[in-house]
Amino acid sequence: MATRSETFSEVVRKARGLRGVALMGVCNVTPDSFSDGGESFTLEAACARVDTLVAEGADLLDLGAESTRPGAPPVDAEEQLRRLLEVVRYAATKRPVSVDTTLPAVAARCLEAGAVAVNDVSCLADPTLADVVAAARAALILMHARGPQSGMRGFSDYPDSAYGDVVADVLSEWKAAAGRAMERGVGKADLVMDPGLGFSKNAAQSADLLRRATELVQRAAAPVVIGASRKSWLTLVDADAPPRLRLGASIAAALHAARSGASLVRVHDVRATRQAIDLARLLDRDGAHV
Q: Which option is the CATH number for 4-283: 1.10.3730.10, 3.40.50.720, 3.20.20.20, 3.90.1150.10?
């Protein structure tokens, strides 16, 4: 019988065979999301968002009930589950679901409800989260971060001196967290690496990580997911653009990630990203670059 993680990895493998990269669509079940301002906060709106993501071509769905914008207050497990659980149950009938949470109690209930992966933006700040993932035989997306976004002073505000070589430092810290997860029973094949663009990094550091994505992929020894969509560091190329008007930069970032060998891209605008990737692949004579 297929395990949850095999289900996740199989979907990624098939999607990569189709277009070179899997599309992970984002649904934020929060009132204060940086990207959409709370459009999917109600159950009805969140389920409608799920339907839209599926119709636009999402291979997987990433659902979260706690905003990760800088300065956002933490949301306790009870409230996350109140917002999220029924949406997870609904979405799991449509596509494989990852639940974006750092709390073991939330992860456990969502995995029981049908999620196949946990997306941990804390880089395993709570090691018992790995126990939950291991017990469910689920996949664990570990995102590099050095602290919660609630402690960040502003978008992409981080010291230039915080990293020596940003790729080497991020990989080293991520692999340490991955090692802790494996010690608690998570299989190596069940780990996915996210470099955490915009988390504990300034705009230049995030851009450097994406620029060197090929190196990151080659050295990670795990599938890599890139999440650049609508993030504030994209204002490097358009200083005044609010999140919804960063579509061009978001698509360029996704294309670069796909060309660099990333296994997944986490995006808000699935249809536009899919069109860009599919056309780039069509126009590439041998189809090998995207």
A: 3.20.20.20
